[in-house]
Each structure stands twice: as C-alpha cells, then as structure tokens.
Amino acid sequence: MAIKLVAGVCPNYGTVLDFGAGPGLFLHMLGKARPDIALVGCDPYMEPTYPELKYAESIESVAAQSVDVLTAFEVCEHLYEDELDALLEDTSRILKPNGAFVISVPIMCGLAIVPKVSNWMIRSRSLKSEYTPAEVLRAMVGKPVSRPKNPRTTHKGFDFRELREIVRVRFHIEAVHMSPVPNMPWWLSSQYFMICRPKT
C-alpha cells in the first residue's frame, strides 16, 4: 500500500524523501515501481543498504521546497513531542507547494489491539504484556491508554487520532487509508495512512 500511495502522488521525475528510512528497503522497492523518481533517505541511525540510494545528512540539511513527497512510515509513534513538532516544521519547509506528506502509523485501539498484544507475547515468549487486561479492554473500545515516558521502543498507548489532530494544524489531510483492507473502518484495521498537503 505504501508503494502504491507514494507512486500515485509523486509527479514524473519527482523527489521522494523517506524520513526514518532504515536501510532503505521501501525506497528500493519504490525505485523498482517508479524508476524515474529521485530517492533520498534520512535516518540518523542507519546507512543505506542499496547502492542506488542517496541519504541526506539530516532533514535540516535538505533544501527548502525541494521535495515532492516526504514519507514517514511507522515513525511518528516513536517521536517525542518536540521531535514530532520539528518534523512537521521541517516537512512544511522542504515540501514543494503542491507536495505531499504521507504518514503511516499503527492503530493501537479497536479490535486490532488483541492480536497485536498476543503477537508481542508470543514473540517475546512471555505471558506478561505492557498492557494490563483492563488497558486491553479500554483500547478495544477506543478509550485512551497511558503511554510510557519513552516512546522509542513501544507502541503502547499511541493514538492515531491525536496525531491526526496535530498534523491537521499544519496540513490539509487529503485522504486516509486503512491497512490491511483499505475500506474497512479504523477499529477493524491495523495501520492508518494519511496523505497530507501543505496549507497555503
């Protein structure tokens, strides 16, 4: 879905910058689908694995109005409040006036919380979970669950609805998509995508 969405909003011979690119798998796959696109990664912790990729030294070093599409996939839920604010400010600066900001985040409320918590317990081979049974029930019905102070290694308590309202202050939200089934309601979905445009 990420490749389809970004390929669909990026103009011919445009530039895509992936914030939190990791080793660059998404950009590598996007390049196969759209070989005309200039691919730029940005990740303070990792180097590119694929030789065709160029990585920016930092998002602050990217020139103003030089990017057609900026992506942040499964990143925003791990940012502190000031880091998220800085990302949105930098995105506003480096996007072209008709550019797109494409975000994906996990849905940690609704019915998806049960398989997600269960999967975490299976993978960690533990009967313990970050969520108490009461917190699982709260999340299932869409009520907030407290977040740990350090968001780096956890999704606990993340609420995509709060992020959506923060993003809406600076950007127009042009479209939203759910995953894995695009037309399902959010409370039956696992992942939330937003296509955003700069406010003029």
TrEMBL record:
GO terms for biological process: methylation. Gene3D superfamilies: Vaccinia Virus protein VP39. It comes from the Bacteria. Keywords: Methyltransferase, Transferase. The lineage of its organism: Bacteria, Bacillati, Actinomycetota, Actinomycetes, Kitasatosporales. This is Methyltransferase type 12. One of its GO terms (molecular function) is methyltransferase activity. It comes from Streptomyces regalis.
